[in-house]
Amino acid sequence: MATKKPIQKKTTASKSKPASKKSNRSWGEKIKWFFIKLMLWFFGLSIASVIIFKYVPVPFTPLMLIRAIENKMAGKEVYFDHDWEPIEKISKNLQKAVIASEDATFLYHNGFDFKALQKAYKSNARGRRIRGGSTISQQTAKNVFLWQGKSYFRKGLEAYFTVLIEIIWGKERIMEVYLNSIEMGDGVYGAYAATEHWYRRDASSLTPMQAAGIAAILPNPRKFKATGSSSYIVRRKERIVREMRAVGKINYDGK
After folding, report:
1. Please, are residues 112 and 120 in contact by the beta-carbon 8 Å criterion?
2. If phi over 0 gives left and psi between -120 and 50 gives alpha, with beta otherwise, what is residue 16?
3. In this structure, are residues 92 and 250 in contact, taking their beta carbons and an 8 Å threshold?
4. Residue 137 in 3-state DSSP?
C-alpha cells in the first residue's frame, strides 16, 4: 500500500511596510497640523485684539516696555508718562499737524501711500538722509502690536495689521490710538502727556505753532525738543504750520 507523503505548505514571508516611511509620514503630518493650528491661533488672536482695541483704550505698547528695559539696563531713571485722552479732547491743530508732518494723504489712502514709499526708496538709494514712507496707519499698527525693527518679517506683519485696523477701526479711531500711543519725548507717550510735558497745558488747547512743535520732533522725540528747539526743528515747525493750512477741515468719514 502506497504511503502518502505529507504535503509541505509553502510559507511566504509576510511583506511588512517599512516602519521608517510610516514614521516619517506621521511626523510630517504632525508638523503640518502644528503650523496650521499656529496660524489659526495667530489669525484668531490678532483679529480679536484689533476688535477689542477698537473700543478699549490701549494701556501700553511694546515700545513703552522696550524703552523701560533700555533705561533700566543703562542705569537711568525709568520714567513713564501715558494717559489716554479721547479724540474729542485732542486739539484739531495737533491732528492737522501730524497729518501735515507724517502723512499728507492719511484721510484718502487705504493704509499705504505707495508714492511716498517710492520717493523714500529713491531718496535712500541716492544716499541722502534716510526717510521713511510709513503712513500713520502703518506707524499705529507697528506701535500697538509689534516691535521696532526693519526685518521683512516684521514689515509683513505691519502690513497685515495695517489692513486690519483700516478695515475694523477706520480713520478716526486710528488717529485716536496714534495720538495716544506714539512716543513724544523721553518717557512721554501720547498727546495728553506731551502737551503737559512740553507746554504745561491740556491737549485740547494747543496753538498751531505748539502743535507743529510736537509734530516736528516725531522723527526722533528723544533727541529733539518741542520747546527751546534747534534751528532744524524751528524750520520744521514753520513748514508744518504752512502745510497745516492745506490740510483744511478734517473729515474722517471721507464724505
Report:
1. no
2. beta
3. yes
4. helix
HSE of 171 in the Cβ direction (CA atoms, 13 Å)? Answer: 18
Eight-class DSSP state of 149: -
More confident: 160 or 147: 160
Q: How far is CA 128 from the centre of its chain?
A: 25
- What is the C-alpha separation between 17 and 98, in angstroms, rounded? 68
Q: What is the pTM of this model?
A: 0.83
The three three-digit cell numbers of residue 82, written as one number: 501715558
Extract the C-alpha cell encoding 7.
Answer: 504535503
For residue range 105-123, what is the model confidence (pLDDT) as tens digits?
999 999 898 886 677 666 5
d(CA 78, CA 66): 11
Instruction: State how beta strands 188-189 and 183-185 pair.
Output: antiparallel
DSSP single-letter state for residue 19? H
How far is C-alpha 31 from the chain's CA centre? 30
DSSP string, 97-132: HHHHHH-TTTTTSSS--HHHHHHHHHHHHTT-S---
Question: What domains can you pick out in the chain, each with its CATH number?
Answer: 59-247 (1.10.3810.10)
* Pairing mode, strands 183-185 and 81-82: unpaired
On average, the pLDDT of the chain sits at 86
The span from the CA of 69 to the CA of 62, in Å, is 11
Q: Does pLDDT of 12 surpass 80? A: no
d(CA 154, CA 208): 35
Q: Please, are residues 250 and 95 in contact by the beta-carbon 8 Å criterion?
A: yes
DSSP-based three-state secondary structure for 251 = coil
